[in-house]
DNA sequence: CAGAAACATGCAAAATATCGCAGAGTCAAG
DNA sequence: CTTGACTCTGCGATATTTTGCATGTTTCTG
C-alpha cells in the first residue's frame, strides 16, 4: 500500500467512523505504530485532522450515531479474531471455517500479509477483498444457515489441499459432549478439513462454552486447548 | 513494447485498480523502474495522473474497490436487474456471472422462486442468503478485482453443469470489437460457462456500449441481442 | 504514585527519486 | 546508403523519502 493511499484511508476512516485508533489501524494495515503516528502528526500539522492521545478525531466532530456504530462490533470477538490472526505466519496455507468469529479473524488479518486463505464461506471470501492474501474459494452446494459450501464438490476440493492451520467454528462447546454443530453435513465437512490440516484451532467466545447444539453433530470429544 | 502503449496501459491500470506501483509495473513489463518513473513524471506533468512516492494515483480517486461500487445503487442497473430476473422461471438452473449488474439480478429475484442459481462470485452468493433458491457456489482461485473464482478448479466445476440461462457480465461492449473483459483468465471462464449454457444473456447498462476494455480480452464478435 | 500505554526523537537500513551520461534505435534529409 | 539530429532506454552515483527500532519522555489510568 502506498503512503498517500494510507493517508487517504485515514481521512476516509475519520469521516466514516468519527474517530481513529492508531494501534488498531497499524495492526490492520500491517505497519508499525510509528508509521501511523507519523502520518497523524503530519496530517495534523497540515490541518487535516485533530490529533489526540491514542489516535485522531475529525476537525469538526461528526455527529452521527457514534455510539451505535461502536456497539455493532463485539469487542470480545474482535479481540479473539486479532489473537487468532496473530498465529498466522507468512507463506502458510490457512483454512477458515464459516461463522462470525472466523469472519473477525479474516478482518483482523494484516492487509499485507502474504498468505493463502482457503474457505468454503462466500462471506468470508468477500471480507478478504482488501487483503493481499491469495484466496481459494471452495465450491459446493451452499448451506445458507451457516453460509458455507457443502456436498461432494466441497469435499473433493478440500481433499486436494493440506492446510497448515484450520480455524474451526463451532456452534457449541461442552466439556462432556465436545464440539458440536447444527448440521450433519456441515459437520462432515469440518471433519474433512480437520483431517487434512496440520493443526486445528477452535475460535470460540465464552458464551459458547458449556452449551450443546440441540441437533448436535459431535465433532470431537477432546481437543488440546 | 512501444512507449505510447505503455502509457496507455498505465492509464488503464489506474482506472481499473485505482493505484499503480512503479516497481510492480516495471517487473511486469520487463523494463527498468527508471522508464516507468519517467512515464509517470511526464504524465503527471501533462496532468494525466497524480504522482506519489512509490507509484501513481488517478486524479480523482476512482471508486477504490468493488465494495464501493457495490454500494452505489444505480437506478438503471436496478431496473435492468428486475427485467433480467423476469426471464427466470421456476425449476431452471441459472448461472450468474460476477459484477454489480448481476448482483442486481440476484437481488431482484423473487424471494420464494424455486430455482437453482450457480455462481462463481462469493458476493453474489452472499446476496442470495434470504432467497429460497438453491445456490451452487463454484470454487477456485479468487480474482479479487471482479470477485469471481477462476482457475482450473472453477473450469472443472463449470464443465459439470448445463445451465438453462447464463447471465454474462462484461466490462465493455463494442459494435466492432464485441464483448470484452479486463482479465484474460476471467474471459476464459466466461467462455466456458457460455459454452455449457443453453442460452446466454448479456446484462449491461448503456455506459458500457461503445467502449472497449483497454487490456481487453475479446469474448465474442457477434451476439444475438 | 506506580505501571502501562502512547509519544517524540535520533538513527540506520531500505526503498524510491533524480541527475548525468552513454549506447541503441528511429527518422528524415542529403 | 550514409549521416546527423533526435528520442528512448538502462546504468551508476547521489539525494530524498519512508520505515522500523531503540531510547528516553510524557500522558493516562487505577
What does this structure look like?
Two copies of one chain form a homodimer. Chain A has 225 residues and is of the alpha/beta class. Chain A has two domains: 3-72, Arc Repressor Mutant, subunit A (Orthogonal Bundle), CATH 1.10.10; 75-218, Rossmann fold. In chain A, 40% of the residues lie in helices and 20% in strands. Chain A has nine helices and 13 strands. Chain A has helices spanning 3-17, 22-29, 33-45, 66-72, 75-85, 100-108, 122-127, 152-159, 184-196, and strands at 20-21, 50-52, 55-57, 93-96, 116-119, 134-137, 140-143, 148-150, 165-168, 172-174, 178-181, 199-202, 217-218. In chain A, the strands form four sheets. A five-stranded parallel sheet of chain A has the order 6-5-4-9-12, with helices on both faces. In chain A, α2 (22-29) crosses α3 and α8 runs parallel beside α9. The radius of gyration of chain A is 20 Å and the shape is elongated. The relative contact order of chain A is 0.11. Chain A binds chain B through residues 2-5, 8, 120, 122-123, 125-126, 128-130, 134-142, 144, 147, 149, 153-154, 157, and chain B through 19, 21, 52-55, 57, 61, 65-67, 120, 122-123, 125-126, 128-129, 134-142, 144, 147, 149, 153-154, 157. The structure holds a DNA duplex (30 and 30 nucleotides).
